[in-house]
Design a protein that fits this description.
With 163 residues, the chain is an alpha+beta fold. The chain has a single domain (2-160), classed as Gcn5-related N-acetyltransferase (GNAT) (Aminopeptidase, 3-Layer(aba) Sandwich). It has helices at 12-25, 37-44, 93-107, 123-131; strands spanning 2-6, 49-56, 59-68, 77-84, 112-119, 135-146, 150-160. It has a seven-stranded mixed sheet. Strand 6 and strand 7 form a beta hairpin. The longest helix is centred in the middle third of the chain and has 15 residues, at 93-107.
Length: 163
């Protein structure tokens, strides 16, 4: 059974085992492919984020963060990033993490969730976010330089979570 809990400092190596290869592949996030482990983990687990891990039988299979998307008048909207380990893909883990984040976000005072930069070529994620109620509210033409496909669009996706 998959459980989702807040990340702890001792989870750093397991989180890197998941996010490192995704960052290195450079296909779904705008992070530099040569980002150093400590810098990437400092970002992913930063003080401005609520970081979670998804685990099964004590093994961490995925991770996500939730953070405030904007300051001031936009602070009621959160943003998330999700990554699933290669061995756990296709098992519904991203869905479980997103559903968890959509439950946690209102508990933290957020009224909406926005994904700022969803790479259009990441069709599995785009389809999942749509099935979970997110709308594409903007398209950024040729905004992402995909390492295999060249310039592709990125989407801004949004869902209202409030009353």
């Amino acid at each position: 059974m998959i459980t989702i809990r807040r990340a702890k400092p001792e989870d750093r190596d397991a989180i890197w085992f998941i996010i490192g290869p995704i960052i290195r592949a450079g296909e779904t996030y705008t992070y530099d492919a040569d980002w150093l482990k400590d810098d990437a983990l400092a970002y992913w687990m930063g003080d401005d984020k609520h970081t979670f891990v998804a685990e099964e039988n004590g093994q961490i299979l995925g991770t996500y963060y939730l953070r405030t998307n904007q300051m001031g008048g936009g602070r009621h909207v959160c943003n998330c990033g999700y990554m699933t380990g290669e061995a756990a893909r296709g098992r519904g883990l991203a869905r479980a993490m997103c559903e968890h984040s959509m439950k946690v976000a209102p508990e933290l005072g957020y009224k909406a969730m926005q994904f700022n930069f969803v790479v259009s070529a990441n069709e599995v994620a785009v389809g999942l976010w749509k099935r979970l109620g997110f709308d594409i509210v903007g398209t950024l033409p040729k905004a992402f330089n995909h390492p295999r496909l060249g310039l592709v669009d990125a989407y801004v996706m949004y869902q209202w979570l409030g009353d």
